[in-house]
């Protein structure tokens, strides 16, 4: 089948989208991705094509490059700028997402029909439903997050969230299959009346990724991912001060305007997935941090957890319901209380105290917590669509 994937994230950095596309082409489907920020010369893989629709650069002051955190500023002018940003962010997000949808619709106007429209996240769902109707195509909704229960910067918008949930349910009800990342989010979507909801976790492929033997004790702990609010990085910095004999590493792209005191922490730029593997193996423990500030976090299973499993290293993860269930079921490491640096430091020490045992448990879980295992859900969903 000819599959059109819609995604508003930068395609080259969205491992879930690329893994799904590769799994489908391996089954004989062709996949075209319309996303954003596709680099010149980017090769998404055999049988996959990709093109960009641009999106505005956000509310960064002029001259601020992407992925660079602004230095802390003070004074009346800075306070007014932060207050204005807080007030206007919800409308700005909606405008930029709507502009992407409008531009993508114009890009696709007059194109040959696809058999399946695969809408990644709510901000592509309306366009996906429109295209599926125009083309008499099947619609797949891929909910990477519990969209209207995310913790977002900016002023609260409770009425817009309620309206958004109703719209999401109406549009997703037109999908033949709904995919999501955890059983907790799937249960929420089913409770809204969505019929065929399947869990496709953010696991990673194991092929050619056999982890090396690790030492008997870790050298430190590392966070790899977006550096910004909601990631509980303040607890990571606080734990670093309590564990001076261990390396503490934070690696990833920084949100503009996010301020974090990184005293005692090594801050590294964004890395490839393979480099993150090596970082985790070098320090020995991966931290999977989230704040307990929204329902989406409580029901999340971040790809950082499964990336650590692929690398073969234990984790220290936030004690939130979905993470709690998986970490304890497989013995992948220890849990800490979000927002509590002392709890995070204690959990790192507990992993170090039985490091060999935790490493063995992670290695034992790898085949089940892998993309080779979970991609069967996606392949099966598409087989059902083809047979229908």
TrEMBL record:
Residues of the Glycosyltransferase subfamily 4-like N-terminal domain: 16-200
Tell me the domain of life: Bacteria
Q: Which GO terms describe its molecular function?
A: glycosyltransferase activity
Keyword Isomerase listed? The answer is no
Pfam (any one): Glyco_trans_1_4
Q: Which UniProt keywords apply?
A: Glycosyltransferase, Transferase
Annotated SUPFAM superfamilies: UDP-Glycosyltransferase/glycogen phosphorylase
Q: Gene3D superfamilies recorded for this chain?
A: Glycogen Phosphorylase B
Q: What is this protein called?
A: Glycosyltransferase
User: What organism is listed for this UniProt entry?
Assistant: Jiangella rhizosphaerae
């Amino acid at each position: 089948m000819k599959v059109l994937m819609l995604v508003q994230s930068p395609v080259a950095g969205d491992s879930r989208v690329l893994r799904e596309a590769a799994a489908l082409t391996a089954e004989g489907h062709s996949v075209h991705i319309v996303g954003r920020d596709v680099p010149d010369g980017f090769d998404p893989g055999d049988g996959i094509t990709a093109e960009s629709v641009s999106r505005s650069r956000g509310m960064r002051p002029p001259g601020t490059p992407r992925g660079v955190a602004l230095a802390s500023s003070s004074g009346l002018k800075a306070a007014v700028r932060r207050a204005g940003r807080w007030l206007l962010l919800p409308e700005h997000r909606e405008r930029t997402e709507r502009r992407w949808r409008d531009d993508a619709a114009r890009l696709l106007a007059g194109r040959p029909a696809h058999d399946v429209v695969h809408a990644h996240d709510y901000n592509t769902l309306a366009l996906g439903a429109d295209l599926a109707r125009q083309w008499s195509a099947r619609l797949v909704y891929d909910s990477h997050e519990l969209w209207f229960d995310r913790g977002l910067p900016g002023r609260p918008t409770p009425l817009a969230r309620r309206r958004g949930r109703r719209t999401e349910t109406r549009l997703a009800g037109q999908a033949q299959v709904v995919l999501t990342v955890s059983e907790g989010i799937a249960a929420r979507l089913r409770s809204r009346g969505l019929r065929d909801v399947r869990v496709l976790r953010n696991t990673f492929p194991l092929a050619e990724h056999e982890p090396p033997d690790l030492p008997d004790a870790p050298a430190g702990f590392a966070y790899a991912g977006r550096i910004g609010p909601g990631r509980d990085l303040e607890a990571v910095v606080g734990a670093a001060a309590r564990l001076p004999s261990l390396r503490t590493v934070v690696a990833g792209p920084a949100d503009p305007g996010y301020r974090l005191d990184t005293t005692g922490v090594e801050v590294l730029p964004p890395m490839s997935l393979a480099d993150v593997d090596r970082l985790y193996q070098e320090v020995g423990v991966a931290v999977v941090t989230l704040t307990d500030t929204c329902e989406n976090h409580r029901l999340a299973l971040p790809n950082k957890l499964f990336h650590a499993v692929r690398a073969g290293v234990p984790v220290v993860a936030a004690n939130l319901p979905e993470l709690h269930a998986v970490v304890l079921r497989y013995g992948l490491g220890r849990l800490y209380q979000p927002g509590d640096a002392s709890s995070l430091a204690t959990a790192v020490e507990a992993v170090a105290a039985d490091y060999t045992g935790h490493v063995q448990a992670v290695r034992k879980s790898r085949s089940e917590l892998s993309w080779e295992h979970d991609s069967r859900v996606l392949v099966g969903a598409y087989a059902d669509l083809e047979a229908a």
